[in-house]
Specification:
The chain has helices at residues 18-23, 85-95, 110-115, 138-152, 185-193, 198-206, 211-226, 235-242, 244-272, 298-304, 319-323, 349-358, 374-384, and strands at 2-7, 29-36, 39-42, 51-54, 58-59, 99-105, 120-122, 128-133, 159-163, 278-284, 294-295, 307-311, 331-337, 363-367. It is α/β, with parallel strands linked by helices.
Length: 391
């Protein structure tokens, strides 16, 4: 199985030994961040630093002329990735014989939400989620489509992986999170992630729902949750809390909004990319789910993208719905965390990869070579020795 390791540019820039060290793991590819959200990251082997604080979402290269005069535009990185940090890291990795693909985080941007509050998801109580741009708003959609094309198609890149190309909701580690006191369950997460901005209100109205009445209904539905009565089940619990017809109408609006954005962004990437450029989406096969792995309809997304990257740490069952709709050109990449301190299991990577292969995976994504300890990386090297990686 072909394997790719996730990296940040700051894992490579300033560390001359990083490219050879990554190649020595046995991977043939690196998925290198070109646009990323705010984070605080460990760099356990870097000769100049141990902690990198990316203070806000940014592009890790110098933004192009297309953004001149536009209100919504990507932020340049600060001291953590100055200039074309992506390009410098990509050149060094390619020099070590590694294929470089871009890693592009899209609808996840707390600074944009702070600077432009009208771009954010607004819940049924009127609370804004600054980390979650509402993907129904025309200006936000235009920004995301152009960002996808620019950040994906960097010089020398062979392909891209698009993360957060869909709805973001409540579930997000934001600053010092204090939201776990009441278990929401899957249904509560959905209801707390519904957006009630003006554009979403118009979308609900077009499907026969009065936005104010819907918001009031969502608040009523959540009252048992706040009392500590976690609703059991997935979509059936949403239907029970909100009513089947109402729930279906909200879902239809949100899924159409996400699906059309995904189509537009992937088309924009393809229009800017050279022949043979692969476009993959970080995806969840449950279409109403929110987050970094966008909820999708497996059949539809595999008719649009070249494949998907599927979260498989703790279980690879999410591969099955995609495998049922694959074609000869489809890539199904199993994303496995190999950082033991972040819940990964690098010691069982070989077995986990073999299991993922039985469920349809033909490639691996290893999260994250820059964050892992030397001991974790030793497990990765040993595991990849036993996995066939065709060119």
């Amino acid at each position: 199985m072909r394997a790719s390791a996730f990296l940040y540019p700051w894992d490579v820039v300033g560390d001359p030994g990083a490219p050879a060290r990554v190649a020595g793991l046995g991977v043939r590819q690196v998925t290198l961040a070109s646009a990323y959200h705010s984070t605080r990251a460990l760099t356990p082997r870097h000769p100049r630093h141990r902690i990198v604080t990316a203070e806000h979402a940014a592009v890790l290269y110098e933004p192009g002329d297309r953004w001149q005069g536009r209100e919504l535009r990507p932020y340049a990185a600060g001291h953590w990735a100055p200039g074309d940090a992506y390009g410098e890291a990509a050149d060094a990795l390619a020099g070590a014989g590694l294929d470089v693909h871009t890693w592009v985080v899209l609808a996840h941007n707390s600074r944009m939400g702070a600077d432009h509050p009208d771009t954010s998801v607004v819940n049924a109580y009127g609370d804004r989620y600054p980390w979650a741009p509402c993907i129904a708003r025309p200006a936000t959609r235009a920004y995301l489509v152009d960002l996808a094309a620019e950040a994906a198609v960097r010089p020398g890149a062979r392909g891209t992986e698009l993360e957060s190309l869909g709805w973001y909701g409540l579930a997000h580690l934001h600053a010092h999170d204090k939201i776990a006191g009441v278990p929401l369950g899957e249904a509560g997460q959905y209801l707390m992630s519904l957006c009630f901005c003006a554009d979403c209100g118009a979308g609900y109205a077009a499907r026969g729902l009065a936005p104010d009445d819907l918001a009031a209904g969502v608040r009523r539905a959540l009252e048992p949750v706040w009392r500590g009565e976690e609703p059991a089940g997935g979509w059936e619990a949403v239907e029970k809390l909100l009513g089947a017809e109402t729930a279906a109408a909200t879902r239809a609006w949100r899924e159409e909004t996400a699906r059309t954005l995904q189509e537009e962004a992937i088309a924009a990437v393809r229009a800017a990319a050279p022949d043979g450029f692969r476009v993959l989406l970080h995806a969840d096969p449950v279409a109403y789910h929110c987050g970094a792995n966008a909820g999708v309809d497996p059949e539809h997304i595999l008719s649009v993208a070249d494949g998907v990257v599927v979260p498989c740490t703790g279980g690879a069952g999410a591969l099955k719905p995609f495998d049922a709709h694959r074609t000869a050109r489809t890539t199904l990449a199993a994303n496995l965390t190999v950082v033991s301190g972040m819940g990964g299991s690098p010691a069982t990577l070989a077995a986990d990869a073999a299991h993922a292969r039985t469920l349809g995976a033909d490639e691996l994504r290893l999260y994250h070579a820059g964050l892992a300890s030397d001991a974790d990386l030793a497990h990765v090297t040993k595991a990849l020795e036993h996995l066939e990686q065709p060119l």
